Amino acid sequence: MVVTQLIEKAMKKAQGAQAWLNQSESTDVSFETNRLKSVESSQQTSLGLKVILDGKVGSSHTTDINDIEGVVNRALESAEFGSPAHFDFPEPQEAIDVKIYDANVLPLTKTEMANIGEEMIALVREYNPEILNYASVNKNIYNGEFANSKGVEYSSEATSFSLGVSGQLVRGTDILWTGHGFGWKKRDIDHIEIAKETIKRFKMAEKIASIKSGNVPVIFPPDSLMIILLALRLGVNGKNVFLGSSPLAGRLGEKIADEKLTIIDNGLIDYMSGSNKYDGEGVPHKVLPIIENGILKNFLYDLDTAGRAGTKTTGHGVGCNPTNIVIKEGDISFEDMLKNTKEGLMVYDVMGLGQGNVMSGEFSVNVNLGFKIENGEIVGRVKDVMLAGNTYDAITKIESMSNTVECVGGYLIAPYMKISSLSVVAK
Amino acid sequence: MRDRLEEALRRSDAEYADIRIEDSTSSWLNFRGRELDSIGSSKSIGGIVRALVKGGWGYSTFNDMNDLGKRVKEACESARMVGKEETQFAQVEPVVDVMKATLEKDFREISLSEKKNIVEEYNEIALGYHNKIQTTSVGYGDNFRKIYFASTEGTYIEDERPNTFLYVSSTAREGNNVQNGFESISGKTGFQVIEGFQKRAEKSSQRAVELLSAPPVKGGKYTVVIDPKLSGVFAHEAFGHLSESDFVYENDRMKELMVLGKRFGSDILNIIDDGSYKGGIGTHKYDDEGVKTKENYLIKEGILVGRLHSRETSAKMNEKPTGNSRSISYQYPPIVRMTNTYIDKGKTSFEDMIKDIKLGILAVDSIGGQTSMEMFTFSAGYAYMIRDGKIAELVRDVVLTGNVFDILMNIDMISDEVIWSPGGPGGCGKGGQSPLPVGLGGPYVRIQNVVVGGRQ
Fold first, then answer.
1. Which residues contact B166 (CB under 8 A, 6 or more apart)?
2. Is the Cβ–Cβ distance between A415 and A374 less than 8 Å?
3. Among A32, B242, B375, B395, which residue has the fewest nearby CB atoms (within 10 Å)?
């Protein structure tokens, strides 16, 4: 393996080393304004090395698989000025198998991919020929190699497949964009269902409704839960905790949310986008509760951050980010959740997420696709509306969660969540 | 390289094909809090082939440089599968041009240790400013990209694109209240760009600490004055994206909405995109299709007079190419993008803009912006209330939103000087390509009746 050559060369000077090689081949078929527009093939190579030299860390990477000498030299050079190593590369450990390769992805031809796109667009146009559609179908095959100086050594093969269709409907100066897509490591995606979901959203948006400024209950479908989760993602990141920039630092074991909220990080679900047997540092993935019945249970760590913080890696290297997030279901049906809402908002898509002071939990976003709820029914799409709140406040005001969950984008499994009160500013 | 590219292009059986190769070296380092978080350097090389057959595009991107002819054939084959119509592609005069970058201080000749020392000094300043500074994130990066471009029409361009950037982000904390300050710079002329940043490193921390005691803005409608950087973001988000003709050229409804000659603002409003602006963050001599960049008026005296084009969109709309086809790297085909976009200066002094505002907001600096074509939103780094014609208290969490089709009409005053923002590591995102360096700047701009998000 190329990575073992890298380790061998690096270890002539270094006291520890870790190397990886990622190669991928992908195909992307794109439709614009209802027509097939382009077909793209991509071949990518990335070769990287991290070393510990005299107690300091250095790294380098390249796209040239033959540049082994160069990578080793640059990594060793940077280690001279690197940060102190607070960790050692891990020994081989027992790990749980998870499915990340689907043999059905490779044989898929460009023509078959184009047909999928065409069928989705045809369906949306059947509903309303005025909609201009954009679609894409993408497949990837990855080959990875990993090794470290402690004897961890493995290679892996993975696939991914994704598709989506979105449309634009212009009426006067009202420009409505919506759509739906899905991706994971498996071929098995029903593109007809994806197109139907897009149509469903257009249908819901046919009527326009107005909403008054004020504090109202807001329902977040799984699709838009990221509005609430974004700050939490940063807040449980071990690096932000260690540095004290996370508002959750020092609060393990405290009740930070309504007891209905349970969030689990699970990198071991077959075919989901964040799944893998190991993290990027050769540490096995596991199932880790983050919030359990409202109580903060764990932060996410990689080797280096765990070393600095005096704790153990949780298998979230490199970067202390979640793998797949699973939110436990609630106890009422979505229909009842809706029925119980006298006046409120259901939000599917927003603009401006992540632009503010995300770490503090504050969000203030423009509702791109959202619906007014009146007396338990969706009465129409709202326009020119801003939604504002704070994640850490919102998760204490979870009124209910639905008893069914959906998988969104291949990395999140979650129910509908209703927050009892958030601020809405209308034009 | 020229021979290699031209040799490979001889394998093309498409109506048009080009190859763009990017050979790049880079180095980076960043501190998080007291400690160096990462340091390193890297090299990459890769390329993309584009082929056009009967209006259909085939692309092939690669890191493996061994068989370029195979990539050309692969792109042609994909294009043939797509193309079912007639190719429309604007004619441009083929050029042969080899350009060299001039660096005042060549960052490739400066050791990692020297880079580390200077960044460490900024970090110490930011961390030591106040005991409420909880942590920092201070980073440096440079890259030197050499681009080789060749087309079947005989164009051959070599372009060197150096870039250096620095950012200082300070986090202040008081209990659960966490606030940020941010300062950044970027430039193409060498390492000296990031020198002398001590004052701004301090300013970053000063702002973070001040924001701890600033209240969040109260949501509602205000008269808002935006500073030059935000006015750049405003020109970019509230109008610029709408003038990118790939959103328009195959969309009859959008064509009606964006018909040239339509009034978008009052006579005082001029919006320009200029890819040839000297020293601009988004400046290049040629775009990524080999088309020369230039100054393009989008709005002149309130009237829509132009838009941004690639060779394909300009041919399909029967307008002249503008040199706005750009890509962030060899991993992507170029798409229609802005370069340096700004509202041109007006005639009012800053003082005159605020003196008759009873209750308003002076919004300063930008955290980011986004548009859905119809609606836009952008976030100020920080802001001050304006009360009875005077700048009053600092406020935070200011997000502005509006409708692109009526907001420009609400601009009633424009200050008399254009100031460009010093740039940074970020840029514009579109179609999965982010960040693309774009120049942001402009004058102070006053806008009536802006919706500001926030709590009641």
1. B119, B122, B138, B139, B140, B184, B185, B186, B193, B194, B197, B424
2. no
3. A32
Chain A segment 341-380 residues within 8 A of B by beta carbon are 351-352, 354-357, 359-360, 362, 364-366, 368
Q: What φ, ψ does residue A151 adopt, rounded to 5°?
A: 100, 0
* Residue A404 vs residues A183, A416, B225: alpha-carbon distances, Å: 20, 8, 47
Chain B residues within 8 A of A425 when measuring between CB atoms: 219-220, 451-454, 456
- Chain A residues within an 8 Å CB radius of B51: none
Is residue B373 a contact partner of residue B405, using CB atoms and an 8 Å limit?
no
β-strand pairing of A412-414 with A406-408:
antiparallel
Tell me what ipTM this predicted complex has.
0.92
Cross-chain Cβ contact B134/A243 below 8 Å: yes
**Shortest alpha-carbon distance between residue A53 and chain B (Å):** 13
Sequence-ordered alpha helix ranges (H) in B19-94: 68-82
Cβ distance of A386 and B57 shorter than 8 Å:
no
pLDDT tens-digit map of B196-212: 999 999 999 999 999 99
Exposed / middle / buried, residue B193 (Cβ in 10 Å: 0-12, 13-18, 19+): buried
Q: How far apart are CA B204 and CA A98, in angstroms?
A: 45
- SS3 for A299? coil
Give the one of A175, A243, A388 whose C-beta lies nearest to B454's C-beta. Answer: A388
Domain extent listing, chain A: 2-204, 207-427
Identify from B20, B451, B452 which residue to disrupt to test chain A contact, counting A C-beta atoms within 10 A and taking the largest count. Answer: B451
Instruction: Give contacts of A 309-348 with B, CB under 8 A.
Output: none
Among residues B407, B414, B442, B424, the alpha carbon closest in space to that of B232 is found at: B442
Whole-number Å distance between alpha carbons of A270 and A283: 18
Chain B nearest-CA distance from A28, in A, is 9
In whole numbers, what is the pLDDT of chain B averaged over residues? 95
Residues 6 or more apart whose Cβ sits within 8 Å of residue A15: A52, A53, A54, A55
pTM reported for the whole predicted model: 0.94
- Choose among B173, B178, B251: nearest Cβ to A33: B251
Q: How many angstroms separate the CA of residue A334 from the nearest CA in chain B?
A: 27
Class of the CATH domain delimited by A2-204 = alpha beta
Give the percent of chain A with pLDDT over 90: 93
Q: How far is B16 from chain A (nearest CA, A)?
A: 14
At residue B252, the 3 state secondary structure works out as helix
* Runs of H (alpha helix) within A60-109: 68-80
Residue B146, amino acid: K
Rounded Cα distance between A318 and A340, Å, is 44
> What percentage of residues in chain A have a pLDDT greater than 70?
100
Tens digit of pLDDT for each residue in B221-231?
A: 999 999 999 99
Share of chain B above pLDDT 70, in %: 100
Residue B456 is predicted with a pLDDT of: 59
- A window 30-49, beta carbon within 8 A of B: 32-33, 35-46
Using the Cβ of B409 and the Cβ atoms of chain A, whether some distance falls under 8 Å is answered with no
Min Cα distance A399 → chain B (Å) is: 20
